[in-house]
Write a structure and sequence with these properties.
The chain is an alpha/beta fold and 499 residues long. It has 20 helices and seven strands. The chain binds flavin-adenine dinucleotide and iron/sulfur cluster. The site of flavin-adenine dinucleotide has 27 residues, from helix 10, helix 12, helix 14 and helix 16.
Length: 499
């Protein structure tokens, strides 16, 4: 055998550079389901099913195209261990791999096989080297500048050399809540009921990972490129026009609202981000969706998605150790059960356990915010996010958690911590209406835990936050608190922080 081509669970891309020059007579594909990938964090059952089912579908598709695929079904140990066994048996002249999405996996494979050929991942608009060039000599790395570079380079939403509509960013149009009337009748999203192969995987996962968190009764994710494309079409036709406007809004019992649910398909590489961006831009050009919605959506894919990947590979492995706010509290147990009286947390965690999904503001301004304010050790909350979302792959999850949500990188990624009281959640959702707490109260029986912990967070971190210019206004309000008020907040907060 000439080349053994490794395809990992998040590399299910027919156009992958791994297949460049593939000769079915001399080369083979290698794929393996290993326990370590599902257990190194306590993975949600739906996340495990999604990866295994998509891998098996991809394997079958390759075989139908005449590729020989060496495929190992669920086996003990790590990828490197499984590969070692097969290399000893198959004796390929060389091993080929596209850049993995996880530093841990890359290190372990390179350590075990120092001569492995690692090819650039063409799935992304930008390369790791291009990001390094962008970062060179900059004191701060902000999304906006990288995003503009990519808009220009890839000619996305451009009018000559100017951004379409005259502005690069329409975020200020994209922060509406639903108001008292709620989201109204939402368009019914396309369904992806499990086929026979997925049902087989579900049964296996229910047996082998019975103790893992999450439910499988609602499994409804695309596991093939065809389904992923159908999901994209459905989003563009039905939800994109309202996406921007209600991007930050939340509503009880509505886990998906106008969001695309495309992250998992994108991250497994079932979907090409160019197709996603082009489809959205076309919807704007044909008058189907307004510019603010389309720009807002494209900024997530061409902007954030590319930018966080750049941050990840530029700063790993040290990035994962960030703990700039010196936070050491344990993750509350209710993150694994949703068993809490705080309605916003119960809803966000509940739907996470049901579907392996929560939208961005639920992740950032509910579960992430609570962990930030409570002072949870960044590694613990990182491992939770990596475990519970179907779209979680470390290159995208880690910067969003360590940088954006927990400010654990000391401001490398975000210009200030996303710290807020319960009033933010009240403004953006109806959660507080049904909650026994009051977002206006920081102390007393009805005190909202977010509001208590917000003030406690500022008090605990005051000297550190004084170094962050954009925190000035928030800290000014802190100065107005009397000593008695501060003491009362600290006492109330202590009840929340003690296990
Ligand atoms: C604490 C935290 C953890 C997160 N963990 C992950 C993760 O593990 N995997 C993941 O893909 N995203 C993660 N995100 C980003 C974002 O929340 C999800 O991409 C999004 O909620 C997925 O739902 P959707 O597909 O409906 O996205 P939509 O809201 O419809 O957005 C469209 C697409 O834009 C991309 N996108 C949006 N925001 C971001 C972002 N901040 N970074 C990178 N891409 C983005 C995604 O591909 C997404 O599918 C995280 C955000 C936070 C705050
Ligand atoms: S009152 Fe506080 S805890 Fe309750 S839903 Fe609102 S923000 Fe969440």
């Amino acid at each position: 055998m000439r080349n053994l081509i490794l395809v990992l669970g998040d590399q299910l891309d027919r156009q992958s550079a791994a297949f460049d020059g593939f000769d079915p007579q001399q080369d083979r594909v290698w794929m393996a389901e290993v326990y370590e990938e599902s257990t190194h964090v306590w993975s949600h059952q739906a996340r495990i099913v999604l990866f295994l089912s998509a891998m098996r579908h991809f394997r079958d598709e390759l075989r139908s195209r005449g590729f020989t695929v060496e495929y190992t079904r669920l086996t003990a140990g790590s990828l490197a261990e499984a590969l070692k066994k097969d290399v000893a048996k198959l004796k390929p002249k060389s091993l080929v791999l596209v850049e993995p999405g996880d530093y841990r996996v890359r290190e372990s494979l390179v350590k075990a096989f120092p001569k492995i050929e690692i090819r650039t991942d063409r799935h992304f608009f930008s390369t790791v080297a291009e990001f390094a060039e962008h970062a060179e000599g900059r004191k701060q790395l902000r999304l906006e500048y990288f995003y503009r570079e990519l808009r220009r380079r890839h000619r996305v939403l451009m009018d000559g050399n100017q951004p379409e509509g005259g502005e690069w960013n329409y975020d200020s149009d994209n922060r509406e809540s639903f108001g008292k009337q709620g989201p109204g009748l939402l368009p019914r999203a396309e369904d992806f009921p499990p086929d026979a192969l997925t049902r087989e995987v579900i049964a296996e996962v229910q047996g082998a990972f019975a103790q893992h968190p999450g439910e499988l009764g609602h499994f409804n994710w695309p596991v093939t490129p065809e389904d992923a494309r159908r999901s994209l079409r459905d989003f563009i036709d039905q939800r994109l026009p309202q996406f921007g406007r209600y991007q930050d809004a939340m509503w009880t019992g509505e886990p998906f609202l106008h969001h695309s649910r495309l992250a998992a398909a994108l991250n497994l590489k079932l979907l090409d981000p160019r197709e996603v961006v082009a489809g959205a831009e076309e919807a704007y050009r044909h008058g189907h969706a307004p510019l603010a919605a389309v720009e807002g959506f494209i900024r997530q894919i061409l902007g954030w998605r590319e930018y966080v990947r750049g941050i990840y590979w530029h700063f790993m492995p040290a990035y994962a150790e960030g703990n700039a706010l010196d936070a050491h509290a344990d993750l509350p147990k209710f993150y694994w059960t949703g068993d809490t009286e705080a309605v916003c947390l119960r809803e966000s965690i509940g739907q996470t356990l049901q579907h392996g999904y929560a939208h961005h503001i639920q992740r950032l301004m509910v579960t992430g915010l609570y962990a930030l304010l409570l002072g949870v050790e960044p590694r613990q909350i990182h491992e939770w996010y990596l475990a519970v979302y179907v779209d979680a792959v470390e290159w995208v999850e880690l910067p969003n958690v360590i940088g954006m949500s927990q400010f654990a990188d000391g401001g490398l990624m975000a210009s200030k911590p996303y710290a807020a009281t319960g009033k933010y959640i009240q403004r953006m959702s109806n959660y507080c209406n049904g909650c026994r707490y009051d977002p206006a109260e920081a102390t007393g029986d009805r005190a909202c835990p977010f509001t208590t912990l917000y003030w406690d967070f500022l008090l605990r971190n005051e000297s550190r936050l004084r170094q962050v210019p954009r925190m000035e206004m928030q800290l000014r309000n802190l100065v107005r608190l009397s000593d008695e008020r501060r003491a009362a907040i600290r006492t109330q907060a202590a009840r929340l922080t003690s296990p």
